Amino acid sequence: MSVVTLLIRNATLPDGRTGIDLLAREGRFIDVAPNLPAPPGAEVLDAQGWLLSPPFVDAHFHMDSTLTFGQPRVNRSGTLLEGIALWGELKPLLTEEAIAERALRYCDWAVARGLLAIRSHVDVCDPRLLAVRALLQVRQQVRPYLDLQLVAFPQDGVLRAPGALENLKRALDLGVDVVGGIPHFERTAAEGATSVRLLCELAAERGLRVDLHCDETDDPASRHVETLAFEAQRLGLHGRATGSHLTSMHSMDNAYAGKLIALIAEAGLSVVANPLINITLQGRYDSYPKRRGMTRVPELQAAGVPVAFGHDCVLDPWYALGSADMLEVAAMGLHVGQLTSAAQMRACFDAVTTVPARILGLAGYGLELGCSADCVLLQARSPVEAIRLRAQRLAVVRAGRVVARTASASAALDLPGRPGSVDFTL
Ligand code: FE2
Prior knowledge:
Blueprint: E1 5-11, E2 20-25, E3 28-33, E4 43-46, E5 51-53, E6 56-62, H1 80-90, H2 96-112, E7 115-123, H3 130-142, E8 147-153, H4 164-174, E9 178-181, H5 189-206, E10 209-214, H6 224-234, E11 241-245, H7 248-251, H8 254-266, E12 270-273, H9 275-281, H10 297-302, E13 307-309, H11 326-336, H12 342-350, H13 354-360, E14 375-378, H14 383-389, E15 393-398, E16 401-405, E17 411-413, E18 420-422
Parallel strand pairs: 1-4, 6-7, 7-8, 8-9, 9-10, 10-11, 11-12, 12-13
Antiparallel strand pairs: 1-2, 2-3, 5-14, 14-15, 15-16, 17-18
Bound molecules: fe (ii) ion.
């Protein structure tokens, strides 16, 4: 199905280089330099100086619940806990076919937006493992155009929900990639800590990555990420363990948070913040002032911790919005974290591209020679401009083949005395 040779002409790269040509053959970049000659028969994509980026990567998503908004009812309070209860109401009504159909539809949205790799948690608390089976099938089906990594996620608590640990192990046996958990949802803090230990041990035994929903609460006393850092270090999971959400860190005492951030860095933990969801679900029990709830992104970054921004939810029991647009996620992260210096804004682009690619362990990610020929052409001149404009994805390339195109955004004016067109770029 793949075009043998694709030449992308005159691209600007995220590192600022301009006038770059990229030659792809057999799914890989085989030359990256200015003014490459076009091989006979090559398809040519003229980038016209626009920004060519490696594809967007979402390090935190829930594909089993996506696009279920309104089923069987909407979340009236808009809270995390009602969302979990609502998901519990929906679970008995799910079918494997419906989960797969929605997931495939979401993958189409993702590809159109240049989002070509997703780590999705999949709930393993249903003993039928319907969602696991559906998403394993989807993972296989979308492989030619999207990398889907699955996390065995015990939504109702691996110790709290009867049979959850066995179901989680069965899901891993079936081929789910990553060990998940939700320690703050276990019955007690002690049980939460026990769950972190056993899930990390399971990951270490099986040679897998571990990614826990951790401390997704405004409670400053929720400190499971400390245990996760300790266990990751004890078990040698350096670079393979991720703490997702960590919203309690927003509310912690500064002295403790400072010590904790150093521990997280020392243990080689990665962090995923989910700005769209954190800003809407956290601080819900505050009057005024209301906390934002997103974890301490700039402080973690300053300590050298890889921090990605995830989408988490799209049209599901927890979030009524979203469209697979990782630039929207980056823009929200930038605003909520007040990440407004030039370097910080630039890092927000990395938080939806290179950083999550590292967290997922994607092989061959990037625009260098020998990398997989996967990329997205954005109607922007720089990564920060791409965030500002939520830039059009002019073309999306997977394995050296153009798989999606979007028309460029321009507006024609017909104003008295001022006919012309509007260009929002600088
Ligand atoms: Fe999540």
